[in-house]
Amino acid sequence: MTMRVRTVLMLIVGLAMMSLAGCDHYNCTNGATFGSTCTPSTPGLGGGGTTGSTTAAFVFVADAAGTSTTGTIDGYTLNTTASTFGATPTYTAPATPLGDSGVGMVVAQAKYLYTAFPTTNHIFGWSISADGNLTAVSGSPYAAPSGSIVSSGFLTQAIITNPAGTLLFISDIFQDQIYEYQIGSGGALTPVTGSPFSVPFAGNMATDGLGKYLYITDAFSNHTGSQVAAYALGSTGSLTVVPGSPFAFPMWQVQGDPTGQFLIGTKGESMVLNGTDDLHLYVFNIAQSGATAGALTQATGSPFATEFSPLSIAVQSNTNGNLVYSFGIADSDLAFNPVEGYALSSTGTLTLASGSPYLDAALGDLGAFDQSGSFLFIYGGITGTNGVTFQMGALDVGTGGALTQPTSTLTLPAGGFFAVTDPQ
């Protein structure tokens, strides 16, 4: 059977995919379940009945295919008592526009879920119940200004929130604007005064770990970037250009560490997408005060060498969290790269986490933490003779950053943007 790795986010199914030929090194015991001949052994995979009561996290995935009339948001639960990862019991999937996986998905305050759809130019918001069900917030779906929500399927961070979950940002890549909303009581959205904000370029976004600054990469469809723009966030969400912005750092994706001192980035270059690898992760100091507060400079020792090309990254955002993981595609185009883990020091140095690289965690090219920083979810997909198969692995983050997979890899009925949250 010939299979192909699917990577990054694509217009219809939410992932812009590449190729994978052959998956003999994968098996149900220690890796992704890619073929029909490999049968998972852990109960709960793919929505089987779960037992036990300890819900560790909920995962939501945009299902652009849905039914014949609408798309959906699929819901999954990681249960640590039963060691299962499957469809959320008694979950009722809300309807979304058909054939539209949106421009991204994000959770605010661990209790509200947002995504935006270019086919209808609407922003959808839901509150997340204690059992993982979704209920539309007041006013949802919200009609966005004409043309503000455009298809940007290759971007990984086109819709984000600040760390407090009080502001929602949407990147308009074709009009070079940032749309910003206040998240009010019950999750309702209200445009921030001055929104949309014109910027020199719009691409992937991130805030620092304290929510004082907004950073935007000049990232477009060739999966490369050339600059990073920086803005100070006012108390009401206003954007003020940081002196010296934009900064000439060619980043594809950046994320802030929880201390607010550093921004971690990747060029996102890989042999598969760009014809070359960049085997580095980058760490930037964020100026904390003075006339250039919010400005970026490379940390001592940056860039830091990696064994594999980091296509995307996930940064632990919980208090005292200091772990960074990278994901990507092998140069041979035959598999996902093993996940690499790093610990970020108080001076901005990256050192290998315990056990890195994690050969058994070569499950995808995208990753996300839950809010506690205790679990890392890795997502990817493949094409074969029977179409596309998407999968997600839930991994325990142990002492020193070591990763273990307590459940079998979850096979998804469809692929798209996803978001993770701890139960409230």
Keywords:
424 residues; mainly beta; 6-stranded antiparallel sheet; 5-stranded antiparallel sheet; 1 helix; 34 strands
Strand content: 35-45%
Main beta sheet? 6 strands, antiparallel
Number of strands: 34
**Weakly predicted, low-confidence segments:** 6-52
Question: Could you give the distance between the termini?
Answer: 43 Å
The number of helical runs is 1
The shape is globular
Helix content: under 10%
Radius of gyration, in angstroms, nearest whole number: 20 Å
Secondary-structure-derived class: mainly beta
What would the average pLDDT be, to the nearest integer? 86
Tell me what you see in this structure.
Helix content is 1%, strand content 39%. With 424 residues, it is an all-beta fold. Strands 1, 29, 30, 31, 32 and 33 form a six-stranded antiparallel β-sheet that branches. Strands 2, 3, 4, 5 and 34 form a five-stranded antiparallel β-sheet that branches. Strands 6, 7, 8, 9 and 10 form a five-stranded antiparallel β-sheet that branches. A hairpin with a 5-residue loop joins β8 (122-128) and β9 (134-136). The model is unreliable at 6-52 (pLDDT under 50).
List the helices and strands and how they pair.
Blueprint: E1 4-6, E2 55-63, E3 71-79, E4 84-87, E5 95-96, E6 105-108, E7 112-117, E8 122-128, E9 134-136, E10 142-143, E11 159-161, E12 167-172, E13 177-183, E14 189-191, E15 197-198, E16 205-207, E17 213-219, E18 225-233, E19 239-241, E20 253-256, E21 262-266, H1 271-274, E22 280-286, E23 296-298, E24 304-305, E25 312-315, E26 323-327, E27 340-344, E28 350-352, E29 366-369, E30 375-384, E31 387-397, E32 403-404, E33 410-412, E34 418-421
Antiparallel strand pairs: 1-30, 2-3, 2-34, 3-4, 3-5, 6-7, 7-8, 8-9, 8-10, 11-12, 12-13, 13-14, 13-15, 16-17, 17-18, 18-19, 20-21, 21-22, 22-23, 22-24, 25-26, 26-27, 27-28, 29-30, 30-31, 31-32, 31-33
